[in-house]
Specification:
Helix content: 25-40%
Oligomer: single chain
Radius of gyration: 26 Å
Largest sheet: 8 strands, antiparallel
Mean pLDDT: 93
Structural class: alpha/beta
CATH topology of the largest domain: Glutamine Phosphoribosylpyrophosphate, subunit 1, domain 1
Number of helices: 20
Number of domains: 3
CATH class of the largest domain: Alpha Beta
């Protein structure tokens, strides 16, 4: 879960690389570093355990004349966040510098072998074996390119690696194995740039809206950049030809626009997210689907639906399971991507697989997608990042179009995902003949009313803030939901633990008597989602059971519901919508509760500890 940037060209590298790292900081912010190669062939390292901005403030490093360098922002997997563990890492002769993303599964064995040969390690990371391995291979007679290529066979696991040679003619090599984050190559006539995120190329380009040619490395492919040009080789070592993919990139500088945090800004943007997410799928003037953008689903012939995701995206899949089962009448399963990879897979060309992920770079989801694709299933993705690895793997992509989400805790991308999945389920229902034309238009009309209902809910921010103040004392929360709102209980608990570091559990309310009820006392806060649906009476019973044991209850109910006024300690009231849309509305107060509890506790809301926006390791 790291960001990588590398440059070999004619411009001064340091300011370009620091600017690129600022675009990549969301991938990990435990530490960061840059290695520059000067005109004498010396490597200059600058590392920090502070924010990336601190690298720009180091004037002694910024003054080094260098047109070659590599850079990295880190999320720790091996070794704590320290300067010695920060990348880049170098060999003992200070001739090779390396940045790395991924986990080397056989690093302990490799490290022991290298130590026996006299190689000394100064960090706790698995990544440090890489420069020593390259140096070892060069000592045995291989040139830099061949020594780097040997990593393809020596390292086990998924990796993204960039190495630079300082002596002689400057040269950068990059390798990708598996799905530990992609590597994008941007050639130019003076050399080239490599980044792990398309947005990170923008500091190297002139202008804010540009057309670029990019090459995406496939697993086990290697790119070599030198002053002589750029070459690509496959796993067998033979030179291969790679096609340039033309892409439009915009430097969408994201400002807080007066908000204290990006998370709050992104919560407040959710009224616009619904139509932005579905505009490529639906013609709202005619209340009809844009079939040209729904080619995979238009083909039909599906006998089941399978959805995969991680974290908030998995919770979106859980809600959408009801959408597909009830609107398309197809058996629907959901799996955590990390678990699905190791299960026996019953998929074929009649299985519609939907992979959901904000970044399109989540390692577990990408690995699962790759296996699913090999089995012949029809694979689509819902993501927010055109050009991502998920976009490249999928047969068809449905983009959220909600703009960059900076806050690590997902908010607007959750609602965007649900909006798209609801639309896809309705369309699939029409294709299999389960929904009539009138029913389909009703579902599209539902989507049209959502922005106004979301805006109405957002106006209640102050009341949600007040409740957060009263329940801030507790270190244990239980979120309860039933049916389609059970995943919202899980999502509410996830948001709270992510940004406030409070222990929280999301439970199916019917399971409360099978364990969680033992935890209930006056110090436990129970948040119960009790909006009107067929399971409302059962939720009311759950609330009474909590109160009978002196538990504190926050009940989320519809505006017209006064029946729980005497049972709940605090009431969150939301507009009433159809049961299918209720999760989209009900999650908003839970986002606000999490935000204001974290704010009251002085937590780093946009960059909570130990988390990263893009999870590129297993």
């Amino acid at each position: 879960m790291c960001g990588i940037a590398a440059y070999l060209g004619s411009e001064q590298a340091y300011p370009l690389l620091t600017a690129a790292l600022s675009k990549l900081e969301y991938r990990g912010y435990d530490s960061a570093g840059i290695a520059l190669i000067d005109g004498n062939g010396d490597i200059h390292l600058n590392k920090t355990i502070n924010k990336v901005a601190s690298l720009s403030e180091n004037n002694s490093k910024a003054s080094i004349k260098s047109t070659v360098g590599i850079a990295h922002t880190r999320w720790a997997t091996h070794g704590s966040p320290t300067v010695s563990n920060a990348h880049p890492h170098v060999d003992k002769d200070n001739n090779i510098a390396v940045v790395h993303n991924g986990i080397i599964e056989n690093f302990a064995e490799l490290k022991a072998q290298l130590q026996k040969q006299g190689y000394e390690f100064v960090s706790e990371t698995d990544s440090e074996v890489i420069p020593h391995l390259i140096a070892q291979q060069m000592k045995e007679g291989l040139d830099f390119e061949s020594a780097f290529a040997s990593l393809n066979k020596l390292l086990q696991g998924s990796q993204a690696i960039v190495a630079v040679l300082a002596s002689g003619e400057p040269m950068i090599c990059a390798l990708r194995t598996g799905y530990a984050g992609g590597l994008a190559v941007f050639p130019d006539h003076n050399g080239g740039t490599i980044t792990s995120d398309l947005s990170a190329i923008l500091p190297f380009l002139k202008g804010t809206d540009v057309q670029v040619g990019v090459v995406f490395l496939e697993p086990h492919e290697i790119v070599t950049i030198s002053t002589k040009g750029i070459s690509y080789t496959g796993e067998d070592g033979n030179v291969i030809k790679k096609d340039l993919v033309k892409m439009s990139l915009s430097d969408n500088v994201v400002e807080k626009k007066g908000y204290d945090h990006y998370m709050l800004k992104e919560i407040m943007e959710q009224a616009d997210s619904v139509l932005a997410a579905t505009r490529e799928l639906i013609d709202f003037s005619s209340l009809q689907f844009k079939t040209d953008n729904l080619n995979v689903l238009s083909g039909g012939g599906f006998d089941r639906v399978l959805m995969i995701g991680c974290g908030t995206s998995l919770n979106a899949c859980s809600v959408a399971q009801t959408y597909f089962e009830e609107l398309s009448n197809l058996p629907t399963e959901i799996y955590s991507s990390s678990e699905f990879r190791y299960k026996k897979k019953f998929v074929n060309d009649k299985t519609l697989v939907i992979a959901v992920g904000q970044s399109g770079e989540t390692a577990d989801t990408l690995s699962a997608m790759s296996e699913i694709k090999a089995l012949g299933a029809r694979l689509v993705t819902v993501c927010n990042t055109p050009g991502s690895q998920a976009d490249q793997l999928a047969e068809e992509s449905y983009f959220m179009n909600c703009g960059i989400e900076v806050g690590v805790a997902s908010t607007k991308t959750f609602i965007s995902s649900l909006s798209i999945l609801y639309a896809l389920a309705a369309y699939l229902g029409s294709k299999v003949g389960y929904l009539s034309e009138i029913e389909v238009k009703d579902k599209i009309a539902d989507i049209l009313i959502l922005p106004d209902v979301i805006a109405e809910t957002l106006k209640e921010e102050d009341s949600f803030k007040e409740i957060a103040h009263h329940i801030n004392f507790s270190n244990n929360f239980l979120f309860l939901g039933r049916g389609i709102n059970y995943p919202i209980a899980v999502e509410g608990a996830l948001k709270l633990k992510e940004i406030s570091y409070i222990h929280a559990e999301g439970y199916a309310a019917g399971e409360m008597k099978h364990g969680p009820i033992a935890l209930i006392d006056e110090r436990l806060v129970t948040v119960a989602i009790a909006t009107q649906d067929m399971l409302y009476d059962k939720m009311v019973s759950n609330i009474k059971e909590v109160k009978a044991r002196n538990g504190l209850v926050v009940a989320l109910v519809n505006e017209s519901d006064n029946s729980l006024d005497l049972d709940a300690d605090y009431l969150i009231k939301v507009p009433e919508v159809s049961s299918y849309l209720a999760p989209i509305i009900n999650v908003i107060p839970l986002q606000f509760l999490s935000y204001y509890i974290a704010l009251n506790r002085g937590c780093d809301i946009d960059q909570p500890r130990n988390l990263a926006k893009s999870v590129t390791v297993e």
